[in-house]
Amino acid sequence: MEIQTTRYEAQAILFSAKIPRLALLNLSIGKCHDRLPTVNVWRNHGIESLIPLTTPFFDYQDWKVDFRLGGYDDTLMFGTWQAADAEILWLDSVRFLVNMSFGEWLAWLAQRLAALRAVSRAPIILATWSNEPRGTERLQAVADGLPAVYFADLQAACGEFNVPLLDSRSAALAGTPLSSFAQLVLARALACHWLPAALSPPIKAVALDLDNTLHEGVLGEDGVHGVRLTPGHAALQSFVKSLRARGIFLALVSRNELSDVEALFAARRDYPLCLADFSAVEVTWGDKAAALSRIASALRIAPDALVFVDDNPGELASVAMQLPQVHTVYAHPDADLTRRVLGFYPGLWRWRVESEDTKRVQDLHANTEREALAAEVADPADYFRGLQVKLTFRSDPTEQLARLADLCNKTNQFNLALRRFNLAEVAACVERSDARVTSVQLTDRLSDSGVIAVIVAMSQGEQLVVDELCISCRAMGRQLEDTMILTALQESAAFFGHTQVAFRVRIGPRNQPALAWLARLIGQSDTPAAGLHVLPVDKLLEFPPAEGVVIAWNDQ
Amino acid sequence: MDYKSIEEVVLKALAAVLKCEVTSDFSRENTPQWDSLKHIEVIFTVEDELDIQFTEDEMGGLDSVSSIVGTILTRHAT
User: Fold this and answer.
1) B12, B13, B37 ranked by CB distance to A49: nearest
2) Could you tell me if A183 lies within 8 Å of chain B, comparing CB atoms?
């Protein structure tokens, strides 16, 4: 409780528009570090004075980061490379452009990134800037040329807060031309945006209280037209609405009468948010932790993919105690501050918005209609035909790597091997001639659910070893698991000419659905043990796909 | 601002950066951990707290608590 209170109090310093350096350095947040990532830093200018500034931001998210700093090296030889969770290229572009043109530098940089990619499977953050015309786009293109390489534009990060990137005074003393203000802004961006977006599973939903959070005042006391939409609250609502457009679920959790809340959103046309923007609404006088559990269940997400925002520290403490996985944010009277806390909340920011993300919100709404249809139709084949269900399989789909890595890292229930391949590792599997990566996309007449399954199989001797098998929870319960997995494996086994399939199993805290599926497939009554479970390919070939489902391969 | 209140800010900045107890007789000469990297952090922290910016010429001479306070007082006086 005390640590949570300290965290809420720290929000005012960590997420202020102008970060106070002294207060930041003196900030002491409870140090219950549950994540200890190591980060290799390859640089040609100083980062030492920025690292102490990142510590409070990492403490806020219970991280302790071990930065391994190499010496200044304009040649980027990576000679002292050791495995790490992330790689950062911390580069002063101006130093390079003294001796070569911008185009020459980009070509050389692409080559050095490829060299690092060849030895490291960790995400790579290219942190630099360009003053050249279209320089930013060209640097972005270099990063996009390799899997799991991300361009952190230092100039743009400073521009967002209107602070100068460079200060000639600091170069001689600190070994970096970055200004004092830039160091503060970049420390926050590195700790709250860039590293969490590269290393952590994404936050998928924001659950918000209503009174004194989304507006000023109490609906039950002030009435529909008495509660106030301050400019700060309007900006907060607009920001929250923009999250929905990026595929992040919104939920409303309020102690009010539902009829009052409905009347509020119907009457207040000045509110950027409308009630339909919330994928889950829990307006009750009951326990908010219980409401959040129901929301996570309705949205088919794990509690650790949910952020709860409330102005009542008591409510936040109660939720933190009952659901410690749920992230909690204190909603300040200054709604601009609340907006910045959410804007920087680790895991909410993305390097890019994938089309799969935006499908998530609309697909959930279609589920209600699917469930109604399933209740009406007894024959599964009629149900599939009625919905025009189609499964599209793709082998080694290089264009879907980010989504496949997301599935590997975020799927907990239907995840048989829990290998947790990151983007670079999935990309390496796609490249290997002795591996087969198959993705499955699910569509029906109600919505495109997107890519909802990934199967990674390796050719090892006589066996096709299934090294990773994940199905998104948004596709579970639709009686398509057998068709998705076995159709994919039939193709992979035929491709390599194997006679046996071996399923790799790892027991996790929540992967019982995947284990139960395998037990049924191999005719075992107990939960399969960790290790390999072998099945003759003949058994796979006996399996017919679900009747009424359209099967397509590689966009046929 | 008077000498005492400026000195208080400088000592707070120094303590926050060096992570140790500090006194008004601290200088770069008698404090090994006050190296060039820590020095720029101290200077930036003092600038931030007092909303001032030292010139490059001034920065070279800011090597003790008293010299930092003295430089700021001189600025206020002119």
Assistant:
1) B37
2) yes
CA-CA-CA-CA torsion sign (A157, A159, A165, A167): negative
Tell whether A297 lies on the interface with B, counting CB pairs under 8 A: no
CATH code of the domain covering residue A258: 3.40.50.1000
* Chain A 22-41, residues with CB within 8 Å of chain B CB atoms: 22, 25-26
Query: What is the pLDDT tens value at each position of chain B, 78 positions in all?
Result: 899 999 999 999 999 999 999 999 999 999 999 998 899 999 999 999 999 999 988 888 899 999 999 999 987 776
Distance in Å, alpha carbon of B53 to nearest chain A alpha carbon: 10
Domain of A116, in residue numbers? 2-199
For residue A20, the chain B residue with the least C-alpha distance is: B48
ipTM: 0.94
pLDDT per position as a tens digit, A427-465: 999 999 999 999 999 999 988 999 999 999 999 988 999
User: Which residue is associated with the tokens 């679900």?
Assistant: A546
- pLDDT tens, position by position, A170-228: 887 788 999 999 999 999 999 999 999 999 888 999 999 999 999 999 999 999 999 99
- Residue A412's nearest CA partner among A515, A323, A534 is A515
Quote the tokens at residue A262. 């409905």
Q: Is A168 in Cβ contact with B37 (below 8 Å)? A: no
Select the CATH number that applies to the domain covering B3-77 from these four: 3.10.50.40, 1.10.1240.10, 3.30.930.10, 1.10.1200.10: 1.10.1200.10
- Could you give the number of structural domains in chain A? 3
* Closest C-alpha to A506, from A434, A420, A443: A420
